[in-house]
Write a structure and sequence with these properties.
The complex is a heterotrimer. Chain A is α/β, with parallel strands linked by helices. Chain A contains 15 helices and 13 strands. Chain A is globular. The two termini of chain A are 28 Å apart. The relative contact order of chain A is 0.13. By secondary structure, chain B is of the alpha+beta class. Chain B is globular, with a radius of gyration of 13 Å. Classes of the chains: A alpha/beta, B alpha+beta, C alpha/beta.
C-alpha cells in the first residue's frame, strides 16, 4: 500500500504530542490583563512562566478529538473485560452530575447551604444498604481498592479494640483473587496466606478451615469469584471464620451478577466494597475516577471512617470527629467526603432502574454470560464445567495444538472490531480468557461476537497462525514494544536538545 | 569448580570459598525478556534462602534467593544498564553476584545438574 | 427498562439455547432462602421523573456561583473552559477502560503521557505518574514511598499541612506501626525543623500551607537531606504552580498535589485529581500507573502502561501500593485545560488570583478588629476575627455569601484556631464580591 504524504489514512489521523504543535506565545483562553503586582509573594515568585506551550481553542479541539478517535469505548461496541463490568453509561447521569447544585458546591461550605447534597448522599446510602442487606455504609472510599482498604482498616480497628492486634496478623486470600486483595492486606500490616481452589473453581472450604486459627484476622473472598462462579459454601465460610474470631471481607467487584438477586448481608459478610463504576454505571473514564462505598456489618459499623453524613433535628450534618457514635472510628482515609460526582450518577442510575430493574440487571447479566458460554463452548474450552454467573471463563486448552497464544487470540479480536476480554486472569486457569458481556448487550450483538470468536477459534485450529501473530493489522497501532518501554523508561516529553536541533 | 542448582532456579558455581550466582537458562526463558535487575550492595551478608536480588520482565517479577549463606564480594554492574544480558548468557556472562561462602557444607543440600534438569522439566 | 436491550422473546430463546427453563436455575448456587430478597425500594422511573427528583435536591443547595464565594482550603473554584467539558464527555474518553490494550487505547495513553509531562514541568520534577485519587491520598502514598526508600519508620509533618491530609497520613502510617509527628497547627509557625532527626523517613511540608503562608522549602530540604530523610512537598492549589518557584527547584524529592484547581469543578469534594511527581532514580518505588513511550511493530511511536511490576496485579502483597485506578478523566480535564493555558496562561490565572486575594486582604485589614496573619500568601490567607469564625460564616451564608473556611471546620474543638477564617480568591472573584464580603464581615462583628 502506498504511504500517504501526511501519514494520515483517511479518517485515521496521526497526532503529534501537544508540545510539538503548541506555542509559547499565545494561549487558548482570553483573560483580563493582570496588573503585575506580586507584593505579597515575598521571594517565592518564579521569574518565568513554566515552559509549557499552549494550543489555540480550535487547535486543542482537534488535538483531543483526533486522539479520542484512537480509543475503543463502550459506546462503540461490546467491551467484554471480565471483572470490569463495562456497561452502558447513561447520559442522564452526566447531565444531573453537572447541575450547579451538585458540581459547583464546595466540600467545606456550611452544612446549612448543602442540605440537598447531604440528603442525596443519605438517600444513596439507603439504597446501598438495602441492596446489600447491610446496616451501614462508608462513603469516603475513592475507588474499589480504596474500599478494600476501608474494610480492612475497619477489621484491623475491631481487632485492636479487642486487644488482639499482636496476635491476629494473618489474612487468608484465595489464589484466584485480584491483586488488590493481597496488596491491601499487606498495606494494613497483615501477612497474606494463600487459599487453594477446588477443581470446580471455588475456595476449598476444607483447606480454609484447616488454615483458620486464633491468628487469622480475616478472609478476603470475592463473590461471585474471579472465575465467574458463585461461592456456594459462602455461608459455611462465614460461619467458620466467625467461629475462629475473624472477619469476612467480601470483594464486591462482581456484585453486578447478584444485584437485586441476593444480598451479602444475608450471607454472613462483614464488609464489602461496591464499585459504583461497575454495578452502578458511573463511567470508567479511561481508568478512573472510581468510587468504592463500603458496606459494614453491625460488628464493624462502630469502626467506620470519618467524615460521615448524619441526620438530626436540624437536618443533615457532616460528622468530622472521632467522638460520639464515631468514638471508635479508624479515622480519616481521604480529604473531604468522597466521590460526590459519582454518587449523583449512581443514584440517578438506581432511581432509573428501580428495585425491579436492578433485579433484571442481575438476571440479564447472568443470562448474557451463559449464552456466550454455551455458544463459545462449541469451539473453546470452558475453564470450569457448569453454568456461570455474569462472566464466562475459558482456558487456552483449545489453542494448545495451534501455536496461537491467548494474547494472539486477543489481538486478532481487535482486528474484528472488538475489545478483547480479560486475559491471563485469574491465575488459576492456563491462558485464561474471562468474558463479561454485561446486561447491556443485545442478542444480536452477542451473536456477532460469538460468531466471530468461533470463526477465530476455527482459524487457529486450522493452522492460520500468521493472522494471529501479525494481529492487530487494522488498529491505529500494531503491537507495541513493551520490553523497550520498560528497559529504558521514557515517561515524559523533553524538548529536543541542541544536538537534535542542529541535526535537523 | 562445581555447579549446583536450587529449586527456585538459581545456579551457583563454586571455586574454593567463593561462588558465582545467577538464574538458570530455564528460568530466564520462562521469565521472557528481562527489563530490570536489582542487585544487592557489596559487603552485605545473606543467609541461605534470603531475598538477595530481583529480576523483572514486563509481566513478571521474581525474587532471587541466596542459594547458600555468604557475603557479597562483587555484583554484575553490567546488568543494571543492560538487563538483557540475563537472557543473552544466563549461566555465564549474565551472572548476578559473587559470594564469599559462610558455610560450604550448605552446598550439599543443592541439586546437581542432572537432578535440576529433572526438576525443571517437571515443574 | 431503557438500559436493557433484551426482549422477553430474546430471553426465552437464550434460556432455551442454554438449556434451562427459568433464569433462577442459573442462580442455583445461591442459598435458596437468600434468593430474590424483598427490597424496600421504589420501582423504575422514566428519565424526566428521575431528573425532577434530583434537580429538586440540587436546588436545595447554595451553589458557589450563586453569590460571592471565598472558600478554599484544598478545593478551589476556577473557571473551566467549555472545551474541557466537551472533550471529557467524548464517548471515546468517557466510556473507555484502563488502556490495557494499547493498540486501541492510544488516545488515553497519549494524553496520559502529555499529562505526566505537564505535571513534571509544573512541579519541577523529573517524572510524574498518571495520577492518584486526590491530594490527600497522594500524600499518604508519598510517605509510604519514602519509607520504602529510606527504610525508616518516622514521618514528620509541618503544622501547616492541611489537617485532612495529616489525618490521612496518620491513618495509613499507624496501621503499620510507624511514628507520625506533627508540629503545632499555628499560622506562621516553623517548629517542624526541630522534629527532624536521623530516624526521620520524610518531612512533609505544604506550601502555600493551609493558612496560606508561603514556606521556605529550600531550608527544610537541606535539613532533611542532612539527616538522610526525603522532603515531600505538598501543594493543594495547583494554579500556584503558575506563579511560584517549583518545589523541585527547591530540593523536594517527592511532590504531591491536589490538581482539582486546573480543569475540574468543586464537585462537593470529589472526584479530584492527585498529582504525584518524583526523581527519576526513584521511579521503581513510585505508586500508581505510569505511561511510557515506545514504538510499535512498524516502528511508529506509541505509548504503553509500563513498569507494571511495581503494581498490585503483578506484585500482589509486595506491590508499592494497592491502587488499581488513576483519576483518568480528571487528568484529561487537567491536561485539556493546561493545553489551553500553557505556562503563560497559567501564570495569568495565577496572577489574577493573587491580585484578587490581595484586594480582599487589603479590604479586610481596614476593618477594626480583623487581623490578617500572613506575611506572605498566594491566593489564600488567614484572618483572626474578634469572635468565633464559624458564627460569622453562618451569618454571612444566610446573606448568600460564602465567606471562607472557618478554623473550627478544619480543627473541630480546638480553641487556638476557632477565631480563624481562611479566605481564598481566584480569577473569578470580582471587586464587588470583595466589597460585599468586607461590608458583611464588618456588619457581623
Amino acid at each position: 500500500m502506498t504511504e500517504t504524504f501526511t501519514g494520515h489514512k483517511a479518517l485515521e489521523l496521526e497526532v503529534p504530542l501537544l508540545f510539538e504543535e503548541g506555542s509559547y506565545e499565545k494561549a487558548g483562553v482570553d483573560l483580563p490583563t493582570p496588573s503585575g503586582a506580586t507584593s505579597r509573594l515575598g521571594d517565592h515568585a518564579a521569574a518565568e512562566p513554566r515552559a509549557l506551550p499552549a494550543l489555540s481553542e480550535p487547535g486543542a479541539m482537534r488535538h483531543f478529538v483526533r486522539l479520542s478517535q484512537k480509543n475503543y469505548a463502550i459506546d462503540m461496541g461490546i467491551f467484554p473485560l471480565g471483572s470490569c463490568t463495562m456497561k452502558h453509561n447513561p447520559r442522564l447521569n452526566e447531565r444531573i452530575a453537572r447541575l450547579p447544585g451538585f458540581a459547583d458546591l464546595h466540600p467545606l461550605q456550611p452544612d446549612g447551604t448543602t442540605q440537598g447534597a447531604l440528603e442525596l448522599i443519605a438517600e444513596l446510602q439507603r439504597w446501598l444498604c438495602e441492596m446489600t442487606g447491610m446496616p451501614a455504609v462508608a462513603m469516603s472510599p475513592k475507588a474499589g481498592a480504596h474500599g478494600e482498604l476501608c474494610g480492612m482498616m475497619a477489621i484491623r480497628a475491631a481487632i485492636v479494640a479487642r486487644g488482639e492486634e499482636a496476635t491476629r496478623t494473618r489474612v487468608l486470600v484465595p489464589e484466584s483473587a485480584h491483586g488488590t486483595n493481597p496488596a491491601t492486606a499487606a498495606q494494613c500490616g497483615f501477612s497474606v496466606d494463600k487459599l487453594p481452589s477446588t477443581d470446580d473453581g471455588r475456595v476449598d472450604l476444607a483447606a480454609m478451615k484447616a488454615k483458620l486459627g486464633p491468628d487469622v484476622a480475616a478472609i478476603m473472598v470475592t463473590n461471585p469469584n474471579t472465575c465467574g462462579l458463585f461461592e456456594r459454601d459462602v455461608r459455611a465460610m462465614a460461619d467458620a471464620v466467625h467461629e475462629a474470631g475473624g472477619y469476612f471481607y467480601c470483594d464486591g467487584a462482581n456484585f453486578n451478577a447478584i444485584v437485586g438477586k441476593a444480598r451479602p448481608g444475608d450471607l454472613g459478610v462483614d464488609a464489602m466494597h461496591i464499585n459504583l463504576h461497575k454495578t452502578f454505571s458511573t463511567p470508567h473514564g479511561g481508568g478512573g475516577p472510581g468510587s468504592g462505598p463500603t458496606v459494614l456489618s453491625e460488628a464493624l459499623k462502630p469502626f467506620a471512617p470519618i467524615p460521615a453524613v448524619v441526620s438530626g433535628a436540624n437536618g443533615y450534618t457532616v460528622h468530622e470527629t472521632e467522638d460520639g457514635a464515631f468514638a471508635q472510628s479508624f479515622g480519616r482515609m481521604t480529604a473531604f467526603h468522597g466521590q460526590m460526582g459519582m454518587f449523583v450518577r449512581a443514584l440517578s442510575y438506581m432511581l432509573s432502574h428501580g428495585a425491579d430493574g436492578l433485579r433484571k440487571v442481575g438476571e440479564d447479566s447472568v443470562l448474557n454470560a451463559n449464552y456466550v458460554r454455551v455458544r463459545l463452548a462449541e469451539e473453546m474450552t470452558q475453564g470450569y464445567p457448569g453454568s456461570c454467573m455474569h462472566e464466562a471463563l475459558f482456558s487456552d486448552a483449545f489453542l494448545k495444538e495451534s501455536g496461537v497464544g491467548t494474547i494472539d487470540f486477543a489481538k486478532a479480536m481487535i482486528d474484528e472490531g472488538f475489545h478483547p476480554m480479560t486475559m491471563y486472569f485469574p491465575l488459576v486457569v492456563s491462558g485464561a480468557m474471562l468474558i463479561e458481556p454485561t446486561e447491556c448487550e443485545s442478542k444480536a450483538s452477542l451473536d456477532e461476537f460469538c460468531d466471530s470468536l468461533l470463526g477465530l477459534a476455527r482459524a487457529a485450529k486450522a493452522g492460520e497462525k500468521e493472522r494471529f501473530e501479525q494481529a492487530p493489522l487494522h488498529a491505529p497501532r500494531r503491537r507495541l514494544d513493551e520490553t523497550r518501554a520498560a528497559r529504558k523508561p521514557i515517561l515524559r516529553w523533553t524538548p529536543p536538545g541542541p544536538e537534535a536541533m542542529a541535526a535537523e | 569448580m562445581t555447579t549446583k542448582y536450587t529449586e527456585d532456579h538459581e545456579w551457583i558455581s563454586v571455586d574454593g570459598d567463593t561462588a558465582t550466582v545467577g538464574i538458570t537458562a530455564h528460568a530466564a526463558e520462562q521469565l521472557g525478556d528481562v527489563v530490570f535487575v536489582e542487585l544487592p550492595d557489596v559487603g552485605k551478608s545473606f543467609s541461605k534462602g534470603d531475598d538477595m536480588a530481583v529480576v523483572e520482565s514486563v509481566k513478571a517479577a521474581s525474587d532471587v534467593y541466596a542459594p547458600v549463606s555468604g557475603a557479597i564480594l562483587e555484583v554484575n554492574e553490567a546488568l543494571v544498564d543492560a538487563p538483557e544480558g540475563v537472557n543473552e548468557g544466563p549461566e555465564n556472562s549474565g551472572w548476578f553476584v559473587k559470594l564469599k561462602l559462610a558455610d560450604p557444607s550448605e552446598l550439599d543440600s543443592l541439586m546437581d545438574e542432572e537432578a535440576y534438569k529433572d526438576h525443571a522439566a517437571n515443574g | 427498562m431503557r438500559y436493557l436491550p433484551l426482549t422477553d422473546t430474546d430471553r426465552a430463546e437464550m434460556l432455551n439455547t442454554i438449556g434451562v427453563a427459568h433464569i433462577d436455575e442459573l442462580f442455583s448456587d445461591v442459598p435458596a432462602d437468600a434468593l430474590n430478597p424483598p427490597l424496600d425500594l421504589p420501582d423504575h422511573k422514566g428519565e424526566f421523573e428521575v431528573e425532577r427528583h434530583l434537580a429538586a435536591l440540587a436546588k436545595k443547595n447554595h451553589a458557589a456561583g450563586d453569590g460571592p464565594f471565598f472558600a478554599g482550603a484544598g478545593a478551589y473554584r476556577h473557571h473551566v473552559p467549555a472545551t474541557v467539558d466537551h472533550i471529557i464527555q467524548r464517548s471515546e474518553f468517557l466510556t473507555a477502560y484502563t488502556p490495557y490494550q494499547p493498540e486501541i487505547a492510544q488516545g488515553t495513553l497519549q494524553y496520559l503521557f502529555e499529562f505526566q509531562t505537564q505535571v513534571a514541568e509544573l512541579t519541577g520534577m523529573e517524572v510524574a505518574n498518571a495520577s492518584m485519587y486526590d491530594g490527600s491520598t497522594a500524600t499518604a502514598e508519598a510517605a509510604l514511598m519514602a519509607r520504602r526508600i529510606t527504610k525508616r519508620k518516622k514521618v514528620v509533618m509541618a503544622g501547616g499541612l492541611h489537617p485532612h491530609y495529616a489525618e490521612v497520613v496518620r491513618t495509613n502510617e499507624e496501621l503499620i506501626g510507624d511514628t507520625v509527628l506533627q508540629a503545632p497547627a499555628n499560622p506562621g509557625a516553623g517548629a517542624v525543623m526541630d522534629l527532624i532527626d536521623d530516624e526521620t523517613s520524610c518531612v512533609i511540608v505544604q506550601s502555600p500551607d493551609v493558612f496560606g503562608f508561603l514556606r521556605n522549602i529550600e531550608d527544610l530540604s537541606a535539613k532533611a537531606h542532612a539527616h538522610g530523610a526525603l522532603l515531600v512537598a505538598v501543594v493543594t492549589e495547583a494554579t500556584s504552580f503558575g506563579l511560584l518557584k517549583s518545589p523541585g527547584s527547591q530540593g523536594a524529592d517527592i511532590v504531591v498535589a491536589e490538581g482539582q484547581a486546573i480543569g475540574n469543578a468543586l464537585n462537593f469534594g470529589g472526584p479530584y485529581l492527585g498529582l504525584f511527581a518524583a526523581r527519576q532514580k526513584h521511579i521503581r518505588h513510585m505508586p500508581g500507573r505510569l505511561c511510557g513511550e515506545t514504538v510499535d511493530a512498524d516502528g511508529k511511536r506509541g505509548f504503553v502502561l509500563t513498569l507494571s511490576t511495581r503494581e498490585q496485579h503483578i506484585r500482589r502483597d509486595k506491590a508499592t501500593s494497592n491502587i488499581c485506578t488513576n483519576s483518568g478523566l480528571c487528568a484529561l480535564a487537567f491536561t485539556v485545560h493546561m493545553s489551553l493555558l500553557g505556562g503563560k496562561g497559567l501564570r495569568e490565572v495565577a496572577m489574577l488570583s493573587h491580585e484578587n486575594a490581595v484586594k480582599a486582604a487589603t479590604a479586610l485589614e481596614a476593618i477594626a478588629g480583623v487581623e490578617v496573619l500572613n506575611d506572605t500568601f498566594y491566593n489564600e490567607f488567614s484572618v483572626r476575627l474578634p469572635k468565633n469564625a464559624s458564627a460569622v460564616v453562618d451569618e454571612l451564608a444566610a446573606q448568600g455569601i460564602i465567606a471562607g473556611v472557618p478554623g473550627e471546620r478544619l480543627w473541630p474543638g480546638r480553641t487556638e484556631t476557632e477565631n480563624l477564617l481562611i479566605i481564598a480568591a481566584t480569577e473569578l472573584t470580582t471587586d464587588s464580591d470583595v466589597d460585599a464580603l468586607a461590608t458583611a464581615i464588618k456588619g457581623a462583628l
